[in-house]
Amino acid sequence: MGKSYQTIAFYQDKCDGCGDCVPACSRRHTDTINPGHSRIKVAKDTEQQSFGVALCRQCGQPQCVMNCPSGALSKDMSTGIVKWDKDKCVNCQLCTLACPYGGITYNTLTDHVMKCDFCDGDPVCVKACPKGALALKQVASIFNSWGDLEDLVVPGLSACLGCNSEMLLRHTLRRIGSNAVVATPPGCIAGVGSVGVNGKTGLKIPVFHPLLTNTASMLAGAGRYYKRIGRDVTMLALAGDGGTADVGFQSLSGAAERGEQMIYICVDNEGYMNTGVQRSSTTPYGAWTSTTPVGAVLRGKTRDAKPMPLLMVMHNCEYVATASTAFMEDYYAKVEKAIEAAKKGMAYIHVFSPCPTGWRFPPGKLIEVARKAVETNIVPLWEYEYRDGRIRFTHPVDKPLPVQAYLSLIGKYKHLDEKQIVFIQEQTDRKIGVLKKFEKAEGKGSPVSSD
Amino acid sequence: MHHTKYLIIGSSHAGLSALDAIRLQDKEGSLTLVTQESCLPYSPTILPYVLSGQTQPEKVFLRDQQSLDSLSIAFKPGTKVVALDGKSRQVAVQSGEKIEYEKLLLATGAAPKRPPGQGLEAVPHHVLRTLEDALSMRSKIRKDATAVVIGAGLIGLHAAENLAKGGMKVVVVETLPQVLPGYFDEEASQMIHRAFSDKGVKILLNKKVSRVKGAEGEATVKLASGETLLAELLVVATGIQPRMEYLKGSGVEVDQGILVDERMRTSVSGIWAAGDVAQTRGFFESSKILNATLPNAVEQGRIAGMDMVNDPALKVHQGAVALNTYKFFGHRAFSVGMIRAGEGCEVEKVVVPEGFKYQKLVFKGDQLVGASGINSDLDPGILFQLIRRKTYLGDVKDRFCASPVDISRVMMTSMWR
User: Fold this and answer.
1) DSSP secondary structure string, B307-345?
2) Domains of chain A
3) Closest Cα of chain B to A93: distance in Å?
4) Complex ipTM, two decimals?
5) With a cut of 50, which residues of chain A have pLDDT below it?
6) Would you list which residues of chain A are within 8 Å, Cβ to Cβ, of chain B?
C-alpha cells in the first residue's frame, strides 16, 4: 500500500514575495547568507504582482531520480525525501532537465547541483515565512494508518458506475475489522452484493439481511447474545435512508432509546434509488423523483427532508455525526469515535451519499457533488458527543457558496425556478442557524432533558 | 525452458523504467531482466565520467542486487539475445538457452557506428559505449601522446576533453561545419569550440577522413584535404546505431530503428520497444525519428511498461524532443527542442561573450518551441515543460522574454502540480 509523507506546500495567494525563506535556507545549509546557496528560489512577476517558488516537491515518482545516470539521486521510502549523494554525482545536470519544478538547480558557488533536504523534517523556510505561504503538509495521511488494513469486501460488486456506497462500504469495513457482524437491510448496500448471490456473501465477515423494518432490533438482539456469551463483537448496521428514516425508524428509535451498543450508519442517497428512484422522507424539498414528478403543477417534492441526525441527537445517542465522502479524513475520524462510543451505547453516523444514477449527474462528478454539498452548507459536517452535550462543527464553512453552486450540478434539481432556489437558500441558512444553537449548548448531557 | 510473463532485454534506463512501471501494477507476475553486460545495470551516459576518473566503476550502478531482489525479478547479466521468434514468443540466447515470454520489451540500446570505407575495420580503435570501453580508453591515456577523435558530437567532445585533461595532445575531426550540430546553433557551438581551443584541443571542421591505417598505438588518419594525423590513441565517435541484429526473421518491422507506435508497441503483438533502439514519432516532426537520449529512454520505457500491464493511467507518447545537458571545461550547457528558427519562428537571444554566457529562446507564434543556453540560469526542466505542454504565452510573452527565469517559475507555480 502507498505511504503518505510530509511535504512543503506553497500558497501562491499568500506569498508577497518578501523572500525571507531564501536567507533562512542559505544560512541553514552554509552558515552564510547568499541567495545562491538557497534551495528555495522565489520568482516574481512584478507586473502581475504574483510570485512563484522553485522548490523540490519530493515527488512520489521523481523524474530527477529516474533520469540520473549515476545513481546519485534516490527516494528514501521511509521519509519520502529525495536524497542527493554528492559522492556519486558526476554533475551531468540531467536532473535539472528532468525536473518540471526547478526543484534541483545548479549552484554556481559550489559548482554542483543542490536540492531541498527537508532540514531533517523541520524546514527552516516554513518557519521563516511570515505570511503562511509555506506550510508543512501531509496529505492522505490516512494511508499510513489505514492503507495496510484488509479490504473485507469481495471484488466485483454490482454497484452502478460511480457509486458512493461501494466506496463507503469498503472503507468502513476496513477500519471496523473482522470482529464484527454486519446488518444490511434491503437497499443499495445489500443490492450491490454485500449479502451476495447463490448463497455466498459479498463480505469476508458475517453479514445478514434483516427486513427493511427491523434492522436495529435484529442487530440489538444479536449484540445482546454476544454479550451474554462474553464475546466482544462490534455490531454494525449499514442501511439506506428508507430503512433508517421511513419504515425502519421505529426499530431504530427504540434501539437508540434503550442505548443498544451498536454503530448504525445511514447511507443517505435521499430516496429509494435501487427500486426506481422513489421519494423517501429524507428526499429534500424540490427534488425530482419518480413519485415527486415535475410537470405543469408539481415541481418536485413539496416537503423538506426529515432531519435524521438531529432526531438521533434528541434520542441521547452516545455519538452522532454527519459525513460526506468528499472529506474522507473527517469520516475516518468519526468512525474511530463511533467504534469507541458503541462500547457504551448507540453511535449513529449519517453519510450524505450522492447517487449518479438516481440524481442524474455524471458518475465522474460524485466527489464534486459531495464536496459542493458541504461547501454550500446543504450538508454541514458536525458531530455530537453525549458526554459534552453539544454539536461541534468538524469542517466549519465560514463563507458558504450559494446553494445554486450545488443544485446546478444535479439533474434532479434542474427544473427549479428562482423562487424554489431562494426557498432552499433560506431553509439552508435557517438549518445552519438551528445547528449553531446546539453548538452553543452548555453543560454535560444532552441539550434536551436527559436521565 | 525458462518461462516468464514479462521479459525485458536491456537493463539501462528504458529497461529499468519499464520494470518500475510494471511492478507498480503487477507485483507478482514473473519478470526476467536480461542484459549482455556482465554486471549490474548502469547508464552509458556515465561513461565519460568513468573515463575522466570523476567516478569509479564500482560506484556507477543504478541498482544493487538487493534492490533488484526486492522487486522479485530474475536478473540475468551476461545474457546476449541472438534470435527472436515472435510467433512462438521465444528468444534464443547465445548460450543456447531459450526463454519463453508472454510480453517482451526490446530495450537493447545502440552500438557505436563506424563510417564505412575508411579502413576502420582493420585498425584497432576505441569507442565509448560500455564500461569496458571506458576503462580500456582510460588505461591508454599517456601524457604528451597524440590522440585523434573522429566526430565532434557529445561522445567525441567528452572523450577529447578527458584525454586533454590527461595531458594528451588531442585533435578532433568533424565533417560538418560546427561541433554539436544536433544541440546548438553556430554561435553557441563556436563558443564551445573556443573553450576547447583555449585548452589546446584542436578541432578540425569540414574535414572528411579518407583512410585510417596502422596498428594500436600508432595509427595514422589521412584526411581528404591531404593532411595526415598521427594517432597514438584513436577514438571513433561518429554516432550510434540501434542494436537490432537479433531481429532478423522475427517479423518485427524496422527502419533506422525498431518502429513503434505511441504506446511503444512494435508491429508484432506482444512485443514493445523503447529507448535508443526505438524509432518513435518526433514531437515536432510527423515522421518517426531516432532520439537516443537518456530522458527519452526513461519516458519511453515507462510508457512501454505501463502499456504492458494495461495501466489505466497511461498517457500516450507525445513524441520525442531533442534535449540534453552538457558540461565542458567547467562550463555548462543545455538544449531543449528547436535550436534554429524555422519558418514562422522568432528568436530571443542574449549573448554575453565576455562572461561566456549564451541564451536563446525560440518561439513559434505564442508558444515556446526551443531553448538553449551556456552558463545560463534558466531552468531547463521548466522550459521543457512549457514546450511540451504547448503552453500559450500570449501577453506574457514580452515579460517572459525580459525575465525568463522568473516568469517561467511563476508560470510553473500557478500552472502545474
Assistant:
1) HHTT-TT------B--EEEEEETTEEEEEEE--S--TTE
2) 6-142 (3.30.70.20), 149-439 (3.40.50.970)
3) 6
4) 0.95
5) 1, 446-447, 449-451
6) 10, 12, 41, 43-45, 47-48, 50-54, 61, 63, 66-67, 69-71, 87-88, 90-94, 96-102, 105-106, 111
